[in-house]
Amino acid sequence: MIDKRVAHVDAALEGLEDGMTVLFGGFGLCGIPENTIAAVRSRGTKNLTCICNNAGVDGFGLGLLLETRQIKKMISSYVGENEEFERQMLSGELDVELIPQGTLAERCRAAGSGIPAFYTPAGYGTEVAEGKEIRVFHGKPHILEHAFDASFAFVKAWKGDASGNLVFKGTARNFNPLMAMAGKITVAEVEELVPVGALDPNNIHVPGIFVHRIFQGDRYEKRIENRTVRKRN
Amino acid sequence: MALDKNGIAQRIAQELRDGWYVNLGIGIPTLVANYIPEGIAIEFQSENGILGMGPFPWEGEEDPDLINAGKQTITALPGAAYFDSAMSFGMIRAKKVQLTVLGAMEVSEYGDIANWKIPGKMVKGMGGAMDLVASAENIIVAMQHTNPRGESKLLSACTLPITGVRCVKKIVTDLAVLAIDQERGFVLLERAPGVSVEEIIAKTAGKIVMDGPVPEMFLPYSAS
Questions:
Q1: pLDDT tens track for A132-145
Q2: Are the C-beta atoms of A62 and A50 separated by less than 8 Å?
Q3: Which member of A78, A162, B37, B132 has the lowest number of beta carbons within 10 Å of its beta carbon?
Q4: B20 touching chain A per CB within 8 A
Q5: Whether B193 contacts chain A with CB within 8 A
Q6: Which domains are delineated in chain B?
Q7: For residue B198, which of B208, B183, B184, B185 has the smallest C-alpha distance?
Q8: Which residues of A touch B136 (CB under 8 A)?
């Protein structure tokens, strides 16, 4: 067993430097690496290019790193609901690249699968396709998209073990497994670090080979962005 | 009388067929789930990674680890499955999802759709819409026939940056049901109860044709 455990989140961030490109798992506020985001903030690392489906909300998620102006550029598919983000984007302080969600996911998967580039129909005929190579397959135009190249991936899982094996819960899985595959150094924080052997090998979502550092996070807030319920009578 | 949002959703629900996997966008499309015809089996896909999405949870039973692509708390029905975002868009691009319903700001008579960006305004992003419209074989747009300024949203060509080209198959608005014919433009199929063909033509800026008399929509629950 190769032990991936680090004692503390700060040890997990060793080597993270100003100007790096980093991946953050999560969809909205669901499945985001809360402890890692807080630690990046305390560490004060600047000029980061962050690849994440969304940009958090004011005061939570990646909104915490926007507040401290640690993010130079965001690569996302959807960035609503964040006033500080909007202010920085409109003032030109923050560079933003918007890409289709499926392309975002596949660029992660490709990076973790040894595929340098791929063709997708998403965005053909739109401004997303500008400047990109077009090729027709089965009579339909596709655009060439490239795998991401990121120094770190920060992901959050439900359970994990010292080997780095990960299991996710519900829709908190989302981009996390793909980003875990894509990072040159992948840091996984888990709600529960279980003993090696406790996870069923049949039900591992990310095998430990993709994970370089793992630690158990604490005080998960798991904020809900859009609470919708049925009223009881 | 023009349909309200529930009326539009109810009419779209009549397009559902037994055994279909369906992706519903944010807004009016979400309401379609309330009107599934009796006796057919449908599974809802949400692109953040669930098949078998159920209704909103009872108050107090919300799970932060269980949301839809609109970031709303949801439930999972028996037989549901969770998966990652690459697999989710894999099933979308590979046309495993039979129907996509989404909103739009503009639709052209060739079926181009614009629904993600207004130049000069804050751009929030396309989310999964570009992937969905680029691959889905059956795309229905749910929208108002005109914008708040009273201008037609059914045009000869989109004026806003487009989300996808020649992809929309059908449009259900507060006034009408229209199909897209690549040769002929908008084909008026049905009109909302009490809405005249003349009114629909007057409020459609793109080419519009019809094949014979245009029947009224059948809405079993009447105006809700």
A1: 999 999 999 999 99
A2: yes
A3: B37
A4: no
A5: no
A6: 5-27+95-209 (3.40.1080.10)
A7: B208
A8: none
